[in-house]
Amino acid sequence: MVLSLLLISLVMSAILGFVYNATKGPIAQAGKAKELNAMKEVLPDFDNDPAADPKEIDGMVFYKATKADQLVGYAAKTFTEKGYAGRFDLMVGFLPDGTINNVVILEQKETPGLGSNMTQPKFKDQFNSLNISTLKDKKLLVKKDGGTVDAISAATISSRAFCDGLQKAYDAYMINFIDPGFKPADATSGSTKPAKESEGGKQ
Amino acid sequence: MEILNIIIIAILINNVVLAQFLGICPFLGVSGKVSTSVGMGAAVVFVMALANLVTYLIQYFVLVPLHVEFMQTITFILIIAFLVQVVEIILKKSAPSLYQALGIYLPLITTNCAVLGIAILAVQKNFTLVESVVYSSATAVGFTFALVLMAGIREQLDVLDTPRGMKGFPLSLIIASMLSMAFMGFSGLVK
Amino acid sequence: MSNFKYFSNGIIKNNPTFVLVLGTCPTLAITTAAENGIGMGLATTFVLVCSNMMIAALKNFIPDKVRIAAFILIIASFVTVVDLVMKAYTPDLYKTLGIYIPLIVVNCIIFARAEAFAQKNAVVPSILDGLGMGIGFTLAITLIASIRELLGNGSIFDIKIVSEQISTILIFILPPGAFITFGYLIAIMNRLKQKYSN
User: Is A115 within a domain?
Assistant: First the structure.
């Protein structure tokens, strides 16, 4: 009785072990490929491997993209916990002056037909070419909260969460990579223009 | 309060049966009478709380340190099957009438997707041990709640005339859809 | 029963979803888009065929007392195989189906066929039975998913059929819609069965 169970376990473990080893590589690859594709979508052309040197800040990950050694921008993998269904992840591409180039939603489980419409160009393209420092108090807010963002109808929570994810990434990006003296939204604003230092741009 | 949040969300907002579609088989199968439903629900609460406790410990003290997370499905379901056997033996000795009433549905708790599903979800949500047990118990209470509601409605419907094609499963499913819609109204409870 | 009968049994006459009403959890949960139906159906069919095959091959070797434990070991292992393979080669589908992939192990269809068929029949009929049941399941859930996707999202297999201006019946993509679609389809199948067996 125990013998038969043992034998079955052995056979199944062998099968499993084989499959596990065979799929280990592709699994790691699949994860990286998705992120690399997202980075390609949110940034202009680059020729380095941004994923080779990720910088983790506050749970977000920043990837530097260069072309011919010139800084093209940074891709930021950010997230928000304030979604209607909890957390969702975004990949946003920032140009060296802090302007948002493009946003791609990595993973979300918002309500279909409502919050999940954040993936539609109608909503998410409004952030392209937007520089948050040009906004009042350098805060990205939906119109309902006094800001400029057109929320998805009947999905204000998802829209707010989206702004939250972008805001977090922007603030961290500015402080860490562009201008150490940058004051994020809640502080009293000093200058309204970020310093145009590109980080380590090799000339 | 984080714990209170978990409880309300588990029972009302993300009700395991009506919103997450776990535990449908017993939900459709056992909900003929209110008394059996209460008994089934109680058994599920017990199994789920215990199962979550054990699977949590196994996950974090065995699977992760040994880097064999892919064995999660197998180990979890084996633990659950074992626990259900234990519960069966206990019930047979201490509450034989309930044991008879539940009949085949008791060993079927093993294949109740809710038990395995919630065990896996609790790990995915990175709960602490306490949060995990609270989560699973609350979820099971939500399961019982939905089950008893359904049983109450079905008991009433049994004495009425229903169209031939709709008898049985179709009717239960339509009722379930209305319950599900009603529960969607709870989503405004938690910010 | 001829070999073909073993196979066709599961497609209409004893369709696991509409006739036997087994495996209802994934049926309701993942049928929000037609391609999810196909993905889940194929994954389940794979596990069904493999476990049916193995159980039929080992049935004389497994003592009755440890039957359930042995079934669990075999089924759970094949589910893990599917899980790993999908994670590696179809990551997007893997993310969409989420927790329902490991939940294939408690899909009552697999246990029911192991218990009712594979345990008492030879290997080849068992493989055919698994295949038939699996395909019947796939067809059923893809049907449900297509209806829900069409009514709730105006598209099918991600191809938009309905123009942007028309508002879709959102409830079909949400949980209540799953119950409604499934319920009415079973009712229709019941009526058809009654008509044709008279």
Answer: yes
